[in-house]
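If you are new to this repository, start here. Below is one unmodified record pulled from the training split, so you can see the exact layout before writing a loader.
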Amino acid sequence: MKDLDRISSAASLAAGRRPSPEAAPTAARRLAYLKERVIESLLFLAAFSSVAITLGIVGTLIYESSTFFAHVPLWDFLTDTLWTPLFASPRFGIVPLIAGTLVTTAVALMVALPIGTVVAIYLSEFAPPTLREIVKPTLELLSAVPTVVYGYFALQFMSPLLQKLIPGLPTFNMLSAGVVMGIMIIPYVSSLSEDAMRAVPMALREGAYALGANKIVTALRVVYPAALSGIVSSYILAISRAIGETMIVAIAAGMQPNLTLDPREPAATITAFIVQVSLGDLPHGSIGYQSIFAAGITLFLLTLVFNILGYVLRRRFREVY
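And here is the target side for that same chain:
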């Protein structure tokens, strides 16, 4: 009988200690829930602010450029081959500025993409860990150098050097600006591409080695294709950075709107023209001044096209492990 009472008491005690499903949350749980909601709100605010800022920029460009397009037909803006906003009879054809932007960007990419990719392959597949930890941060310091320094480097060093190799090359030219701009964006390509290749599972490399492939074949035929999604992202980032570069092209490429695809010639880019007008060459509120917003929205659309292309390519080459 005593044993039954003892068992019953233990059962009652155990039942009394068991939390009820309907019990209210404790203060600790309420505090943890409150902290979680605050963090979620801050993260949402950060994401929303970035979207709101982007929409604000687009809205400003559209609103300000509407005044320009009220006086200049869109067709003339897109097809006219003369950009002379400072002349007595101004012409507003964006084609020369687009040509200068694309030529300098193409020269920069011809420098940055091969060198950056080779550096990324070396750091990922061949460099000892100690050397990698030294070279990668050192290389990334290139992106920390002010662009105005790169501009004067192109004007004072690269242009004279190229003039020795190409007789008759003018002091201001798109070639020297593009080469220095390519040097500047090498870290964007090498660092992101190296991170993408390091993320490739070691099992793929070991499988290639088991089939008799050496390190260079494995790097080029296995690792590079497997990391192509991330590598393409670095390429698109480099393109966007080159298109939006301002000071290098404003200092070294010249500021003369010139419709040419010859990188040895001087030319103006979209960003260089925006800098020129912002310095006060045209009165505020004039059609010439409003043209910087039309040029800005053109630059925005160019960058948007390349980013959309990069998104499509990332989806196309994305690997799931």
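Two things worth knowing about this chain: The chain has a mean pLDDT of 83. Residues 27-71 form the longest helix (45 residues).
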